[in-house]
Design a protein that fits this description.
- It contains ten helices and eleven strands.
- It is of the alpha+beta class.
- It folds into two domains: 124 residues, no CATH class; 224 residues, Phosphatase 2c, domain 1, CATH 3.60.40.
- A hairpin with a 5-residue loop joins strand 6 and strand 7.
- The longest helix is centred in the first third of the chain and has 42 residues.
- The chain is elongated and about 90 Å long.
- The N and C termini lie far apart (59 Å).
């Protein structure tokens, strides 16, 4: 019996399951409402419940809507027969109504099980698309971590050695607009395009221009844009060239303790076909630390709705100590301590690089 309970609970506490249920309910509500009940997210009380019920009803197939309505009508009509002379008719309608609801529920659960299996496969494929362990590069201590809010994420990170003369590496952190499977598919396209481009070009400006063109072709008229930060490190000159395409500005902590925000760049990829991007360039030295992250870090919220925020992140970077992997663990622990029991609403990704001579 104990083994059955452990398998059923998945080795997790009841409180963890309750938080997961709240997160799934919130995610389902937010994904269903905008499409079928515009303005439903701003409603509260009974109007909010009605908006959600209406949205869920129109997500059903036509046949399932008919069966659901038939079941509801049978249950309602049986209420008028309760206590009357026709107890047999009451029981039959009650039974048929319940069966109609059970049929709809069973079909939806079957779809859910199938979808969950597909999502798990998609998650595994997505994990293959990003590096599992940091590469060992001279003068660089690298650590990265992503924590998806859903099974499939829209965040992306990478560390790509570049061809050409002299040791060079490209750091990438990106965040696709939206969540779930649509964002994951766009992320996969972004990753494929980037990997193809860096194999033929050693010029960051050229890579960015071609990446913008590819993203505009796949952005559905700008609705599926991608914010990204790309930084090319040249070991020979200890220089960092970068482009910030509408992304959260990474924080560079100098060995002296001062912090620089890397903002030069332009709009997110895929928004405007003719957008131009400014190239930032600076020198890095031994003891400098670079933190690249997605908005899930600064927008992580506690139960009161307060966000972790850029000020807390700057304070953390200023005091962070140890290796890149230790700093990464400290950052995630700091976010967890702040959010406490609040569910995670967005993907969290960070990439930390420490420079040494």
């Amino acid at each position: 019996m104990t083994d059955v309970r452990q398998k059923t609970a998945g080795g997790r506490s009841p409180r963890r399951h309750w938080l997961d249920l709240k997160q799934e309910a919130r995610s389902a509500y937010e994904s269903a409402i905008p499409e079928f009940a515009p303005g439903g997210l701003e409603k509260s009380g009974p109007p909010r419940v009605w908006a959600f019920a209406r949205a869920m009803f129109f997500r059903l197939t036509l046949v399932r809507r008919v069966v659901l309505l038939l079941g509801i009508l049978l249950l309602l009509s049986s209420a008028f027969l309760f206590g009357g002379s026709s107890q047999l008719a009451y029981g039959n309608r009650l039974l048929l109504g319940a069966l109609c609801l059970l049929v709809v529920l069973a079909l939806e659960l079957a779809d859910r099980v199938s979808l969950k299996r597909d999502l798990e496969v998609a998650r595994d494929i997505q994990n293959w698309l990003v590096p599992r362990t940091p590469p060992e590069l001279p003068g660089l201590d690298i650590a990265f971590r992503t924590r998806p809010a859903n099974t499939v994420a829209g965040d992306y990170y990478d560390v790509l050695p570049l061809p050409g003369g002299g040791p060079s590496v490209l750091f990438v952190v990106a965040d696709v607009a939206g969540k779930g499977i649509p964002a994951g598919l766009v992320m996969a396209c972004f990753r494929t395009c980037l990997h193809t481009l860096v194999q033929t070009s050693h010029d960051l400006g050229g890579v960015v221009a071609n990446l913008q063109r590819c993203c505009c072709e796949d952005s559905l008229g700008g609705r599926r844009f991608t914010s990204a930060f790309l930084a090319q490190y040249e070991a020979a000159g200890h220089t960092l060239s970068y482009v910030n395409a509408g992304h959260n500005p990474p924080l560079l902590r100098r060995a002296s303790g001062s912090i620089v925000e890397l903002k030069e760049g332009g709009v997110p990829f895929g928004t405007f076909p003719n957008a131009a991007f400014e190239l930032g360039r600076l020198s890095v030295g031994s003891g400098d630390l670079l933190l690249m992250y997605t908005d899930g870090v600064v927008e992580a919220a506690n139960e009161a709705g307060d966000e972790y925020g850029l000020d807390r992140l700057r304070a953390f970077v200023r005091e962070a100590a140890g290796s890149a992997a230790e700093c990464q663990q400290q950052l995630l622990a700091s976010i967890d301590a702040f959010t406490a029991r609040a569910p995670q609403h967005d993907d969290i990704t960070c990439l930390i690089v420490q420079f040494s001579s």
